[in-house]
Design brief:
With 527 residues, this protein is an alpha/beta fold. Helix content is 43%, strand content 21%. Strands 1, 2, 3, 4, 5, 6, 7 and 8 form an eight-stranded antiparallel sheet that branches. Strands 15, 16, 17, 18, 19 and 20 form a six-stranded mixed sheet that branches.
Length: 527
């Protein structure tokens, strides 16, 4: 961090929240424009000038005009805010960056604590970014100046704090390299010359974990490699990675990975028979054929997966599943709707229960890939999907920018609307990845944390979206022709012929293959 003289004028120009990767070059920006980077999710590294900087949630950088910043995310990617702002040391007059590129008092890596306070402030700035009234714009500039004051108060006079932070970073590097050795937090704190409680607090701020959890994570990752690369006994692997007890190693491994070390080793056979009800999409994405595919009397099977040679199985039948003789079972939160208890599953085969909500399909895929030894495949699948979604979003921006879109489900009991970007099978793709404009009714559902709601006649009248995607749920019996409903016929999308029927099970799924198909359907309809 560098320091310079005080300042007198500032103004925010732009704020964005987006995935972070690659080269950020400020050479084309006007003089006196600085860039602030705040990491909200993920981890990676940055290079600014000659400095290498570790990036995690809570990291904050400010780059001077004309600088180059290179960001390299790690496996799970990086998300963050990018804020560009003007800064001048002369009131009413912007100083030339060529005369003093470090006019801003602090550049480089910044302390940003407590991060919860900073992110609340930035979130308020971001949520008001589209307002255009003079008073609203002025209020948002005040919010930004309060954010800068918050940062400057921590970073202008902190030589001692910087030394402590460097000591903490050195301690973390030591643990990463010597994870096999016994340690105590008291000893680590003493070496860093801070109190135990402060060491623990700063360690968690820097890594997101307590010291013991951090070291255990490193040990478990190394043990996973040894389980697959060697035939060593479990007690030998436990000792190699730093555990003096095989029992403790087993317990820690299962707490972290979800299965025992022995099960982890066994499931990496090429001929492993895996049963994952309604998660066949995820297995196929990882290049694994499921032992069976689910068939439901209400909706049939997931035809979009193309599993013609894979036998179908009623997920409510324990005898059918037992006949398949699975080696391993993977369940998501939906398993509770089956008349089979978790103990019955576990008696048939080792069983893993995923904890992620369906909307967080990336975490689900990466978790499955982790214990199936397919992490590279998962990274590739996610990268391919995100590239496809980005390209599709650009095409759609040219064809339907600003036009509202909604997804409805027609059944014998009524017409249902799916919510916005945060919840449900469709919102994260339509309004998140493809950046389409959600209809206000869909936004209302998200505000109520509702994935799906039946529309009353009055609410149906308000559904004036320019485009409607429709799925037909035939479980409850024959669906009345919606065109017999005068309110439906009066909807703008219906009158304009902008209603697009899509496959029910393809769209009612959280898998990445399903999401790819949704993008194809949207492009076919709108691009």
């Amino acid at each position: 961090m560098t320091q310079q003289a005080a300042i007198a004028y500032c103004a925010m120009k732009e704020i964005r929240h987006e995935p972070l990767q690659g080269l950020y070059n400020d050479e084309d920006k006007e003089e006196s424009v600085y860039t602030m980077l705040v990491i909200t999710e993920g981890s990676g590294t940055a290079r600014l000038a000659q400095d290498g900087i570790r990036l995690i949630r809570g990291s904050c950088l400010i780059t001077p005009p004309g600088s180059e910043l290179t960001i390299k995310p790690e496996r799970k990617g990086l998300q963050g805010y990018i804020i560009s702002f003007l800064w001048s040391g002369v009131p009413g007059k912007l100083a030339s960056a060529s005369r003093d590129v470090n006019l801003f008092p602090c550049t480089g890596e910044m302390t940003c604590l407590p991060f919860s306070q900073a992110i609340e402030s930035i979130g308020a700035i971001y949520s008001h970014r589209l307002l255009h009234g003079q008073l609203e714009l002025f209020q948002n500039q005040i919010r930004f100046q309060q954010l800068l004051l918050f940062l400057l108060q921590q970073n202008q006079q902190q030589t001692a704090e910087t030394d402590i932070r460097r000591g903490m970073e050195q301690s973390i590097r030591y643990l990463k390299e010597h994870y096999r050795e016994p340690f105590t937090v008291d000893l680590l704190a003493e070496r860093t010359m801070v109190s135990r409680w402060r060491y623990t607090r700063m360690f968690k701020e820097l890594t997101g974990q307590l010291p013991l959890d951090y070291v255990n994570g490193i040990r478990i990752e190394r043990s996973k490699q040894l389980l697959l690369q060697t035939e060593d006994r479990l007690h030998a692997i436990a000792e190699t990675v730093g555990y003096n007890s095989e029992y403790y190693f087993n317990r820690r491994f299962k707490q972290t990975v979800g299965i025992s070390p022995g099960q982890y080793r066994r499931i990496h056979r090429d001929d492993l028979k895996i049963y994952a009800p309604y998660m066949e999409d995820f297995l196929l994405a990882l290049g694994i054929n499921p032992i069976a595919q689910c068939w439901d009397a209400r909706w049939g099977k997931q035809e979009y997966l193309g599993l013609q040679d894979v036998p179908v199985l009623d997920p409510t039948s324990l005898s059918d599943l037992s006949a398949c003789k699975p080696d391993f079972i993977i369940l998501d939160g939906g398993y509770e709707k089956y008349p089979i208890s978790i103990r019955q599953f576990e008696r048939l085969a080792p069983t893993y229960r995923l904890q992620h909500p369906g909307e967080n399909w990336r975490a689900t895929l990466q978790t499955m890939a982790d214990f199936l030894g397919k992490t590279e495949q998962a990274d590739q699948v996610i990268a391919q999907y995100e590239n496809k979604a980005e390209a599709a979003s650009l095409r759609l921006r040219r064809s339907v920018s600003g036009q509202s879109v909604a997804c409805v489900r027609l059944s014998a009991s009524g017409i249902y609307l799916y919510g916005g970007v945060d919840l449900g099978y469709t919102g994260s793709v339509l309004y998140g990845d493809l950046d389409l404009t959600p209809h206000p009714l869909a936004i209302e559902l998200s505000a109520r944390a509702s994935r799906l709601e039946m529309l009353t006649a009055e609410k149906l009248k308000e559904l004036d979206a320019e485009h409607l995607f429709v799925v037909y749920d035939k479980y409850e019996g024959s669906i009345p022709n919606p065109n017999m409903n005068p309110i439906w016929r009066s909807l703008p999308a219906v009158q304009a012929g902008r209603v697009y029927e899509v496959d029910f099970l393809t769209w009612m799924n959280y898998g990445v293959l399903s999401h790819n198909k949704k993008i194809d359907d949207v492009l076919l309809a709108l691009a």
